[in-house]
Amino acid sequence: MSGMHGGGGGRRGRVSGGDAVAQRAENAEAPRIPNLLGRIAGLFAPHRTALIVTVVLVFISAGLSVVPPLLVQRAFDEGLFPPGGAPDVRRLAVLVGLMIAIYLGSQLLGVWQTWLTATVGNSVMGSLRVRLFTHLQAMELSFFTRTKTGVIQSRLQNDVGGVASVLTNTISSLLGNVVTVIASLVAMLLLSWQLAIVAVVLMPILVIAQRRVGQVRARIAAKTQESLSDMTAITQETLSVSGILLSKSFTRQPTEIRRYSDENDNQVRLQVSQQMSGQWFFAMVSIFLSSIPAIVYLFAGLLMAGGTTDITPGTIVAFTTVQSRLLFPLLGLMRVTLDLQTSSALFARIFQYLDLKPAISDAAEAAEVPTSGTDVGRVEFDNVTFAYPDSSPDSRPTLDHVSFAIEPGQFAAFVGPSGAGKTTVSYLIPRFYEASAGRVLFSGVDVRALRQESLVSHIGIVSQETYLFHATIAENLRYAKPDATDAELEAAARSASIHGTIASFPEGYATVVGERGYRLSGGEKQRIAIARVLLKNPEVLILDEATSALDAISERVVQAALDTASRGRTTIAIAHRLSTIVAADVIFVVDAGRIVESGTHSELLAANGVYARLYSEQSTSSSPLLAE
């Protein structure tokens, strides 16, 4: 609400008839949060003064909106047509000046109110968004593996974004519309109670008509959106590379054209119906708005002709002016229930995420990772059992009583069939997941007794799926060490055998790699990831099938970089191709969640067990038998 119009339609002017039904259904699915109103009030508590001023401004603005019509009555009856006959210009000038002053004051108050509500609403939204983002950063890895990325983004963008509108529109609109309606009704009664009865009886008819038309438009809009979705699906299916190859291979282009054309005809029909339903409504509004003053004139004329009232021309003009201001506040109040429900649902969904407790958190007395002693860089599993949080109770655990020790500086490899639990080992070391039973020790200390940030800072991970930001190569490298010098970047790149390639680019380290590094080859991306880890310089390096997605040539180059990276540090490799780990100090063979064999490459071949079988199969086949 601002200025003279006392509120308008409220925030959910954007919730048209077309999506009100869907919005109500979404609101009904919102979680139930105890003391929701109290927690919402707590968010706005730091802005208490601005809120109080806003409420006062709403009341003043709404009250002022009905003053000009009263001045219009005086201008007609005392200025233009005074009892004496000739117009009283001096009196008229004073009244006109008062009206202009009120118009000006109302607009200034409206601007002030808008600034206050926008500032408070967006401040709360901003702090809530950062608070939610910070909380999500603390959540365990399993939360993100079981939650769709789109759902998380919706909480951050849509739900939190809607919070600003709660204050900037919903609350002020509710207050403004209520005050405007009450003030207008009081003004109408003061002007003429007989005419007020006529207007009050007629106004609900228009409000009901608006609601009915809105429901019709809702049904049409739902069908229109459904048709658009169908057209989008047809486009994606048939115009993708795979789709166009399929249709050409089976000469089905005419069928696809006909299917698209039929849906397009349906979309055209629905669009016409939607626009026409709105046109009929606006025509009804126009006719009714024009009719109400005419009916008031007629009724006033009947009263004046009967001599039963002292209604003056000024009263009639003032009355119709006040009456015309009632429509939009009434329509806004009809939507207020949905507004408040939607606002509560937004807050409930946000608080639901804020109330989530991270499954993995630092202990009260968590310590830093030791940086001296004989155990620095040592990794040990002591009778570890682990099952993923979403696994069924009767299923076997992913890891079942696993024990091993990797000494500082050793190169250890984990191999085994798909689903054996190899990658899970790499998740438990940095405590991305918590062991269900047993202990995971890092540098001689149970990881549950270490600060997570300290633990992860001593571990470098190179995975199969390299993630690069849409930024320069230098910026991607400095993600590991923000204050790294250019010389340090070059040293890390040389160690990862990627400096020469970077130097060959026209912009060198300032080359933008593109979304997820699409401008680079798989081998180049992987070597940049290795350089990033080397810049971090961790005591322990985890290689999770780091070369499995590469071709033979790229694999050799990347493997050479990995060999350099692993020198002088504890290295744990989740092996895809056994040829890459034949020189490992120790190889652990994992099968069905247990370590069934361990030893060097030659020892395991001599044992003629699971490893020997897998090595033989991989040596005679190009199939990736050991994919995790």
UniProtKB/TrEMBL annotation:
Which keywords does the record carry? ATP-binding, Cell inner membrane, Cell membrane, Membrane, Nucleotide-binding, Transmembrane, Transmembrane helix, Transport
Q: Which residues cross the membrane?
A: 50-72, 92-115, 182-209, 280-305
Per the record, membrane topology reads: Multi-pass membrane protein
Q: Does the keyword Nucleotidyltransferase apply?
A: no
Q: Which domain of life is it from?
A: Bacteria
Question: InterPro entries from the entry?
Answer: AAA+_ATPase, ABC1_TM_dom, ABC1_TM_sf, ABC_transporter-like_ATP-bd, ABC_transporter-like_CS, P-loop_NTPase, Type_1_exporter
Q: Name one GO molecular function term.
A: ATP hydrolysis activity
* Protein name (Swiss-Prot/TrEMBL): ABC transporter ATP-binding protein
Species for this entry: Cryobacterium shii
Identify the taxonomic lineage of the organism of origin: Bacteria, Bacillati, Actinomycetota, Actinomycetes, Micrococcales
